[in-house]
Amino acid sequence: MALSDFDLVLFGGSGDLSMRKLLPALYNRDHAKGLPETARIICVGRNAWSREEFMEAMEQNARPHIASGNPDPATWERFRGRIQYVSLDAADAATYAALKGALRDGPDDSAIVRVFYLAMPPSLFATICRNLKESGLASATSRVVLEKPLGRDLASAQQINREVGQVFSESQIFRIDHYLGKETVQNLLALRFGNVLFEPLWRREWISDVQITIAEELGVGNRLDYYDTAGALRDMLQNHLLQLLCIVAMEPPVSASPDAVRDEKLKVLRSLKRFTPFTLAQDVVRGQYRSGHVNGVAVPGYRKEPNANPDSRTETFVALKAEIDTWRWAGVPFYLRTGKRMADQLAEIVVRFKKIPASIFARPNTTFQPNSLLIRLQPEEELQLQLMAKTPGDGMRLRPVELELDFKETFKTPRMDAYERLLLDVLRGQLTLFMRSDELEAAWEWVEPILNYWEQEGDEPMPYTAGTWGPAAASALVARDGLQWREESIPE
């Protein structure tokens, strides 16, 4: 579907997110001839740069993330021509006059989509929105995109929703979670609701457990100031992992309309079993990496990272067991896990089915593995169904085999980056893949008791060696249910 003409304003336009993700995503869409001829991108920052100085910064910081640093020359020049730079202080309404002068208006203004993307700290969301309103820049047809973190607890999330909602209606607010823009997540929706094969099995009678993992080999890098006040629970689990859980567990919506889908996701969040003091102690593991080796390279522990607090209790790893109190999912554990400095860089969902009730095959010749469905989000995007099959040769010996769908091999057309897809949805006004305010608050309501428990107990996070799969307690968490994490259950 063709896009309407637009002015896209990137607050934080000279920042890391804009340079690494947003501007490259917009370039990719321009290269695919998917942007209107007169569409413009206005990058906003505090630096008192000229347009030429900003272009130089874009050459150095955004270009390396485009097509291996070698964009198509004609497209790059066309894309550069769309860019303007405006210097302003986001907290000072008087400086917004420069932005107003850069935006188009006039008799055809209603035909131009105006989007404000706030790639800024959440403490500035309300101030920016208020200043946009006072400057006459926010209208009933404009849109605002809010980057995470969307608060640090329930009260702050409610405050953001309330204050932004005083300027923009709910239908104008796009709370972005880039994991929902990944191709494999889209295909999970297609797999569930575009095929009849899995629906009869997608329930407690046939599914043993669900594992959702987002593991990173990297440490905190240059994000220490932010990360030390956030931690893995706020940074990853409250948003990315819970959103993936909702996609796996939601009931079939009545349609693909935004509110129909988001209504079902909200029901999942409200059906999550609440933690008790006992389950908080038993079913939640937090850890912090110590020095170790990742890919053969020695790396420092979290407390020894540059400028780190040597007594920091910030968690870099969280694993927990969640349960959903519905007829479909009662009794099925959902294990969520995320961490930095892990043994591998991956994001995946594993739906593991129950074991066969009885075997007709001699056990000495067979290593049985339960059937499972692997939805891999990164580093490659793929679907993999694990079955048992006979090995060639004499005798009846079975072993696990995989039926694999590699999106890169199956679909030769170029794939869109998650941010590219989500930016297109913003420009089209399509809200399906964006969180609604009640979703955000329901997620915080479920997570907040964990934060309160850690604060009250004052316990140290469990240490784990960099380059491993986290604290031993994470393995014990699933072992109590007679299960293993996927990488622990793969036969040698």
TrEMBL record:
Q: Which residues bind substrate?
A: H178, K182, E216, D235, K340
Catalytic EC class: oxidoreductase
Identify the domain of life.
Bacteria
**UniProt-listed InterPro entries:** G6P_DH, G6P_DH_AS, G6P_DH_C, G6P_DH_NAD-bd, NAD(P)-bd_dom_sf
**Is Ribonucleoprotein tagged as a keyword?**
no
Query: EC number(s) of the enzyme?
Result: 1.1.1.49
Q: Which UniProt keywords apply?
A: Carbohydrate metabolism, Glucose metabolism, NADP, Oxidoreductase
Q: What is the catalytic activity of this protein?
A: D-glucose 6-phosphate + NADP(+) = 6-phospho-D-glucono-1,5-lactone + NADPH + H(+)
The Glucose-6-phosphate dehydrogenase NAD-binding domain sits at 9-187
Active-site residue numbers: H240
**Family recorded in the similarity comment:** Belongs to the glucose-6-phosphate dehydrogenase family.
UniProt cross-references to NCBIfam families, sorted A to Z = PRK12853.1-3, zwf
Tell me the protein's name. Answer: Glucose-6-phosphate 1-dehydrogenase
Q: Which organism is it from?
A: Noviherbaspirillum album
- Gene that specifies this protein: zwf
